């Protein structure tokens, strides 16, 4: 989902979840929106995934889009290494609320 599309989506919908996905060890964050149908959309610019270096950068971008609440989801590669399903896709077990 392009950033401009995110702004329009937020203006017309209220039943969605924003996830800030952190990748352990790399200090890079991506933003994902899950809509009411369960479809996930990564935030993109010019068709490429947007990568943020700090949570502050994420807060600024989401705030510009009119979003004031999200969930931080930490991607831990250890689960995949030992053959377990990655938990960052399971929002109930691997998320921390962010309010800004």
Shape: globular
Rg calc:
13 Å
Poorly predicted ranges: none
Query: In order across it, which strands form the biggest sheet?
Result: 3-2-1-6-7
DSSP strand count: 7
Strand content: 25-35%
Gap from first CA to last CA = 22 Å
Order of helices and strands: HEEEEEHEHE
Please write out the topology.
Elements: H1 3-12, E1 17-23, E2 28-34, E3 40-42, E4 44-45, E5 48-49, H2 55-64, E6 69-75, H3 77-81, E7 95-99
Parallel strand pairs: 1-6
Antiparallel strand pairs: 1-2, 2-3, 4-5, 6-7
Please outline what is shown here.
The protein is α+β, with helices and mostly antiparallel strands. The chain is 25% helix and 33% strand.
Describe what this molecule looks like in 3D:
Strands 3-2-1-6-7 form a 5-stranded mixed sheet, with no helix packed on it. The chain has 3 helices and 7 strands; from the N terminus they run αβββββαβαβ. A hairpin with a 4-residue loop joins strand 1 (about 15-25) and strand 2 (about 30-35). It has one domain. Helices cover about 25% and strands about 35% of the residues.
Which structural traits does this protein have?
alpha+beta; five-stranded mixed sheet; two-stranded antiparallel sheet; 3 helices; 7 strands; 25% helix
